[in-house]
Design brief:
Blueprint (H helix, E strand, L loop, with lengths): L3 H6 L5 E3 L8 H9 L4 E4 L5 H14 L4 E6 L5 H10 L4 E5 L7 H6 L3 E6 L2 H10 L3 E5 L5 E2 L7 H11 L4 E4 L5 H9 L4 E4 L1 H4 L8 H9 L5 E4 L6 E4 L2 H11 L4 H8 L3 H7 L23 H17 L4
Helix pairs in contact: 2-3, 3-4, 6-7, 8-14, 11-12
Length: about 300
């Protein structure tokens, strides 16, 4: 299958692995790229020197295109951008910020730029900024989320109608059937995050991976809306936040509860009680840890099968 997304990234399948913090290092990114999708290194949890090392290791592990996901709220963003340019990374996905800030500089270096949005308004701003595509991420997604709480089922057709550049669907997608639904709604590719957490190549802690495959419907919740909304797996830390929010705690108190390094404690170090566990609703459908290449093949195979099936 060839469309604007596969041609833009020079990949076989329009399946993009999300650049998740504490999970998306060079092993996962290279495995997805080698399987025909697009792997992304998640730079949000990396010091600049670590990012450079990860880029070089990824390039050594795959001859296929790969990219870097850059949260624009990262404190050392200028260093990350400089390293990405120096290392000649071909593709950058940006999120959590204004796409105008870095897009023109990256484009001048021949880098393809995609911005993650949660509304048609910001999709249009991304198009105006010169982005090559947008990721429209619905409310179901894990990690940092849009304040609008628009679901993928509503967001994808709205964004697809609003912009002329390719739309990549994200949020609640882990299977080929879900991928087909997103494509019918107007997307030309999908970005998959939570499903790839449950892979041997993901750098997240084994305890977190096991928690993901054991998750049931209702086990995640959008939280910390007064700070930056984030979808969390429910645990002791989540309950502490929930209790504070229910009594209308101040922003300062919520910041104190969150503290520093909370996501690392949970997702990377494996503290299932006190850690921040970012994961999407679709974790309720993930039941086993599988190699990243098998996940890509399984999603694509199911997509093709469903494409041929008559409606019931």
């Amino acid at each position: 299958m060839q469309n604007r997304v596969t041609r833009l990234f020079e990949i076989d399948y329009p399946i993009i692995q999300a650049g998740m913090i504490w999970a998306s290092g060079w092993r996962l990114a290279s495995a997805v790229s080698n399987a025909g999708g697009l792997g992304l290194i998640g730079s949000g949890s990396m010091y600049p020197d670590v990012l450079r090392e990860q880029i070089r290791k990824c390039r050594a592990a795959t001859a296929k295109p790969f990219g870097v996901n850059v949260p624009l709220l990262y404190p050392d963003i200028d260093q990350h951008i400089r390293i990405i340019i120096e290392e000649k990374v071909p593709i950058v996905f940006t999120s959590a910020g204004n796409p105008k800030t870095w897009t023109s500089m990256l484009k001048q270096e021949g880098i393809k730029v995609v911005h993650v949005v949660s509304s048609s308004k910001f999709a249009l701003k991304s198009q105006e900024a010169g982005c090559d595509a947008v990721v429209a991420e619905g409310f179901e997604a894990g990690g940092h989320n849009g304040r609008e709480e628009t679901t993928t089922l509503v967001l994808i057709p709205a964004v697809s109608a609003a912009v002329d550049i390719p739309v990549i669907a994200a949020g609640g997608i882990a299977t080929g059937r879900q991928m087909l639904a997103a494509m019918v709604l107007g997307a030309e590719g999908v970005q998959v995050g939570s499903r790839f957490i449950a892979s041997p190549e993901a750098s997240s802690h084994e305890h977190f991976k096991q928690a993901v495959i054991q998750a049931q419907e209702g086990d995640t919740q959008l939280s910390l809306k007064q700070l930056t909304p984030v979808r969390l797996l429910k645990n002791k830390f989540y309950q502490q936040v929930q209790e504070a929010e229910q009594r209308c705690a101040s922003v300062e108190e919520l910041k104190n509860i969150l503290g520093r390094g909370r996501a690392k404690k949970g997702m990377f170090e494996g503290d299932m009680d006190e850690g921040e566990l970012e994961i999407g609703q679709v974790s309720a459908l993930v039941r086993e840890i599988r190699p990243a290449a098998e996940i890509v093949r399984e999603i694509w195979s199911e997509f093709e099968q469903c494409l041929q099936q008559p409606l019931k």
